[in-house]
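Students often ask why inverse folding is considered easier than folding. One informal answer: many sequences map to the same fold, so there is more than one right answer. In these notes we will look at a single instance of the problem. The structure comes first.
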């Protein structure tokens, strides 16, 4: 018998868009769903629900790879859980493969306590004998100063102006051998100590309109390199919009505040679904 095609919801946070489902999907199915011409279209698939009384979120990137966490995805998942009545209070924790994150849903905005950042090379991970802070690296024919940050997932942030070379540097840095699990690449520029602009090349996705964990990593890099101050809100402007990030004392959660919006909901066509799941022919239940 063919399986029923599942329902899904499409959400976005500053243009970083996701397909939310309530069952785990194989990576190749997630890839097909994320295809912007032949599927629903998204930067990733979020498997969201509640297990043993604990809300959870698992992330599959558009290329089928796994991501430990996702800042914009967390905001979307938090509103989804509230609006579907799966949680009773507006403040709760969501478990991810990078640990739990406390979320507070405030209308169409969500505050997230991202996990404490780490610069320890073994946490990023990056092959280095000390934390990388504006460390010079040779990549794609240029010397780039890079700060490596773990937000539960790996980030490399540079404040160097690279212009059009960014599209050559980013994929090379994502796959650089000294980042054994790959890395999200952020190119940041400061207007002043409380405002920065950011473009992010996401591991397994490419250029995105926004990256929540990348915005946090850029704010941490700005603080740790003396470009910004602790405990002061930093507005991070991405192509899709602005997030507010607060970096506190080392070892404390990074606070992220930004929007999340449902775009539409639907049910996948049974023929499409069964063809990609390899289900045998037969009537739909």
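Output (designed amino acids):
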């Amino acid at each position: 018998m063919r399986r029923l095609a599942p329902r899904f919801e499409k959400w976005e946070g500053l243009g970083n868009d996701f397909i939310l489902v309530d069952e785990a999907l194989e990576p190749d199915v997630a890839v097909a769903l994320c295809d912007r011409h032949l599927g629903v279209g998204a930067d990733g698939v979020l498997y969201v629900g509640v297990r043993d009384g604990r809300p959870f979120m698992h992330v599959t990137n558009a290329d089928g790879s796994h991501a430990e966490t996702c800042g914009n995805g967390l905001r979307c998942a938090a509103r989804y859980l509230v609006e579907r009545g799966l949680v009773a209070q507006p403040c709760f924790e969501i478990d991810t493969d990078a640990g739990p994150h406390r979320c507070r849903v405030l209308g169409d905005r969500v505050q997230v306590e991202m996990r404490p950042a780490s610069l320890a090379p073994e946490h990023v991970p990056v092959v280095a004998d000390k934390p990388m802070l504006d460390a010079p690296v040779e990549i794609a024919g240029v010397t780039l100063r890079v700060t490596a940050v773990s937000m539960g997932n790996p980030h490399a942030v540079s404040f160097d102006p690279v212009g059009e070379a960014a599209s050559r540097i980013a994929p090379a840095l994502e796959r650089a051998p000294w980042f054994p699990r790959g890395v999200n690449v952020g190119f940041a520029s400061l207007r002043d100590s409380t405002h920065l602009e950011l473009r992010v090349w996401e591991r397994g996705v490419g250029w995105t309109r926004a990256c929540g964990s990348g915005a946090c990593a850029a704010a941490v890099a700005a603080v740790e390199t003396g470009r910004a101050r602790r405990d002061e809100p930093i507005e991070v402007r991405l192509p899709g919009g602005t997030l507010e990030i607060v970096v506190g004392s080392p070892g404390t959660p990074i606070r992220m505040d930004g929007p999340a919006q449902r775009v539409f909901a639907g049910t996948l066509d049974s023929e499409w679904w069964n063809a990609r799941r390899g289900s045998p022919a037969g009537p739909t239940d």
